[in-house]
Automatic annotation (TrEMBL):
Residues 231-379 form the Acyl-CoA dehydrogenase/oxidase C-terminal domain. It catalyses: a 2,3-saturated acyl-CoA + A = a 2,3-dehydroacyl-CoA + AH2. InterPro entries: Acyl-CoA_DH_CS (IPR006089), Acyl-CoA_Oxase/DH_mid-dom (IPR006091), Acyl-CoA_Oxase/DH_mid-dom_sf (IPR046373), AcylCo_DH-like_C (IPR036250), AcylCo_DH/oxidase_C (IPR009075), AcylCoA_DH/ox_N (IPR013786), AcylCoA_DH/ox_N_sf (IPR037069), AcylCoA_DH/oxidase_NM_dom_sf (IPR009100). Pfam families: Acyl-CoA_dh_1, Acyl-CoA_dh_M, Acyl-CoA_dh_N. The keyword Oxidoreductase applies. The keyword tRNA processing does not apply. Its cofactor is FAD. This is Acyl-CoA dehydrogenase. It comes from the Bacteria. Coiled coil: none annotated.
Amino acid sequence: MDFSFTEEQRDFRSALRQLVDKEIIPVANEWERTGRYPTEIVARMREMGLFGITTPEAYGGLELDMVSFTLVYEEIARGWMGVAGILGSHNLACWMIARHGTEEQKQQWLPRLASGECRTGIGLTEPGAGTDLQGIATTATRDGDEYVIRGTKTWITNARHANVLPVLVKTDPSASPAHKGMAILLVDTTTPGFEVQRDLGKLGYKGTESCEILLDEVRVPASTLLGGVEGRGMQQALSGLEIGRLNIAGRSVGIAQASYDAALTYARDRHAFGKPIADFQAIQLKLADIATQLQAARLMTYWAAAKADTGARVDGEAGMAKYFASETAITASLEAMRIHGGYGYSTEFDVERYYRDAPLMSIGEGTNDIMRTVIAKSLVNGTVTVG
């Protein structure tokens, strides 16, 4: 049993930390407050190849192992979780195209997506369907060599910057069970009828947009059907969400680490009653709790990622990591605020941003209640064993 990184992983993490410490942390608070899009950070992430971390090398990507994949999100979320979100939806879509796309689709999109020349996201959620993806109302009707798409998608990350968007649709709304009538279409966002209608206001997760999209009689070639076969859309989406949960777990660890770092630094520097508040047992207990839960979340995340690197399905393991790490991020950010006292509520300190960003981790890629049911099913059917 080896809990250490490979030399390549250590070097990669070091490069990520330099990016975060020098170019993200110094600007995150100001740019978030002013609503400034992180254009320069996106450009640096392009230079580092981070838009191609799930794309095979044959198509110009880095094709990272899953542990390194989680490190990307951990380190960048440590600096600014919203920026990690820019990469999250993009690389999830790339993963789906690489695993399920036809050779023509891979050749058409993956090289440009891996380089960051083109951007993408994932069009799943609707105003009336989030957790219950089989309940989507967006349809795609076959008309000769085209599909005509009608519907609305919401909470779409990268919507204003995407060149292509995988969109989950129903090609046969009467199918039973519903997933047999579902598909994913790779929609060119310049197609007439594709409209980004509005940006959604958010508590946290700033730095990237989350939008509502209207698909009004959008005509796309039949060749945009992911994998070239109808009836596989739900399975394709769920396979993407499986690795997406490792992304969320990594981001959660990053938020928790940033919260811990801020709390420890403040506790050492802040004096009360003639000594650092780190000398008070009440503060020490909070720091011990944050650190212990953080390290447990980190190890669980790497464990699930390492299992994914074997090629096995990791529904249960990724669910455990996402569930535990996201709850840890929420707890760590709140306790860090408490250690800061009144200053923790001030926008001059970073911890209030961590506190606003953390709750999304318990919702994204499936709510934590859903994660618990996923975990339970894995335990019952024996795909995950404990002990």
